[in-house]
Specification:
Blueprint (H helix, E strand, L loop, with lengths): L5 H11 L6 E4 L4 H9 L4 E4 L4 H17 L2
Parallel strand pairs: 1-2
Length: about 70
């Protein structure tokens, strides 16, 4: 994603009305960053290193939500 962060891409997808359930993963978490992601409707905001069980849980939620939207 040249010239665009994941958050910027998510915001652009929201503007276009086509943002999928989104899980943000970062090694540089801040309270402000988490608040922005949550405000924009992110399904999850996870810090590295990721717990495998948590990742599985959020992937299952994202898939269920996506399939429910169809």
């Amino acid at each position: 994603m040249p010239n665009m962060s994941g958050i910027e891409m998510h915001e652009r997808l929201l503007e276009l009305g086509c943002a999928p359930p989104t899980i943000f993963i970062t090694a540089f978490a801040t309270v402000a960053l988490q608040a922005k992601c949550e405000k924009n409707g992110a399904l999850a905001f996870l810090e590295k290193p990721i717990d495998a069980a948590a990742m599985e849980r959020y992937l299952n939620l994202a898939l269920a939500k996506r399939l429910g939207d169809q």
